[in-house]
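Translate sequence into structure tokens.
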Amino acid sequence: MLYRKMPKNGDELSILGFGAMRLPVKEDGSIDEKTATNMVRYSINNGVNYVDTAWPYHMGESETFLAKALADGYREKVKLATKQPQWMVKNPGDMDKFLNAQLKKLNTDHIDYYLIHSLVDSSWENIKNLGVREFLDKAKADGRIINAGFSYHGSPEDFAPIVDAYDWDFCQIQYNFLDTNVQAGTAGLEYAASKGLGVVIMEPLRGGNLADPVPQEVLDIWNGADTKRSPVEWALRWVWNHPEITVVLSGMSAPAHVEENLKIADEGLANSLTEKELQLVERVAEKYGELMKINCTGCRYCMPCPEGVDIPACFEVYNNLHMFGGEDRLKMMYAAKMGGILRGDETNFASQCVQCGQCLDACPQQIPIPDMLEEVAEEFEGLGLGERIAFAKQLFADDSC
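Result follows.
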């Protein structure tokens, strides 16, 4: 494992951080605690010393799970990060309420790296006016938090003003080879570093979309490299190539992901990719830009939809159609999944959107979600949907009784 220093405090942090947003789950959607605990502890045993979670992850269960996973001495081996759900803060007292609840959920007396979660310009103005800077000063002074930071999902032009608005220790931004001009982007990364902030990266694989499956057109480019690497290795190595970055979070959801990421992290040196290799990555980014229709990472901040639309699932199947083909298979999958057949719940069709706009403010990628849902509905809910639903019901019928 390689390590890099946090600029302001000198903490030696593993370049690979464990993100607890996409833990393995059981069929009922609950965390598979046995598998997930083994993954967390195996990562720590092999050098990972930064673990990241947040109040809403896994429907509020991620923090509680980590308290158990980090028992038996593992809490003392890591720097623990979690986030204030600023959208739930209605008055100044709520900030202490949430922090104290998180300390209890995580079974710890302090948070090493505490972030104000998912800031954009408007949410920063709101939480700032509620006294978040004074709250952070107080919580640092009394030892409940050690380092204060924020995660960002706003527009490029609003990033620097937030960096300058408080004496932050670090920030967390989305960054990968597709998002150099999205949200904070490369300019924001360099600006934060120039101000002495440590930079933690989220979505290095863009919600797994850069990992598997990979479109054949993209694989053809990767396979043309002199040095053969997996798509995951190319994506992670590209992020770690930037010396301004301290930690890269990976939302690992299977033991195989842990093994692969640990191996890659052993070689994630800054400035280690050649100019020819960087040009190869740029060609891949251009190809993805041609193939991808909707800029969704599957973070689910837009959920729940008041009308029951499973927005990320709708976008995933739409992107898969345009990146990988397989129209008949994907239309059947859409009918089964959005028709509530596979999951045994209510329907989640894109056409259920009533254009209320609630999802627009919540989307970190600033996707025009209602407009895109119209496109999904047009693609998947036209002629033949009824027949596909009927066939899916027959195909997935429960014969157990």
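Note: DSSP finds 17 helices and ten strands in the chain.
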